[in-house]
Structures are given as C-alpha cells and as structure tokens.
Amino acid sequence: xxxxxxxxxxxxxxxxxxxxxxxxxxxxxxxxxxxxxxxxxxxxxxxxxxxxx
Length: 53
What we know:
InterPro entries: DctP_fam, TRAP_DctP_sf. One of its GO terms (biological process) is transmembrane transport. The chain has 53 residues and is mostly helical. The protein is built from 3 helices and no strands. The protein has one domain.
C-alpha cells in the first residue's frame, strides 16, 4: 500500500485496525489524512509568508 506523501500520518495509524477496515472506511481515513496534510502545508506556507514579510 502506498500513502503518497502521507508517511508521517500513516505511522500514526494502527496497522491492525486499519487493515480490518472496509475499503470504504480506508478511503475515508486516507481522505481525512490528505486534508490534514493539505491544511498543514497551508499553515507552513502562511508562516513562511509572515517570516518573509
């Protein structure tokens, strides 16, 4: 399974619990993880912009 840049979040997921989820539940977990990564990137960019300004 590939996490496409979500390795830090993937490490936090209990593998046994994740593997016991249905495919639909796994997709929800990955969608939430993607959103969290996007939000973190936006925060990082905002902080960089503040430092530059």
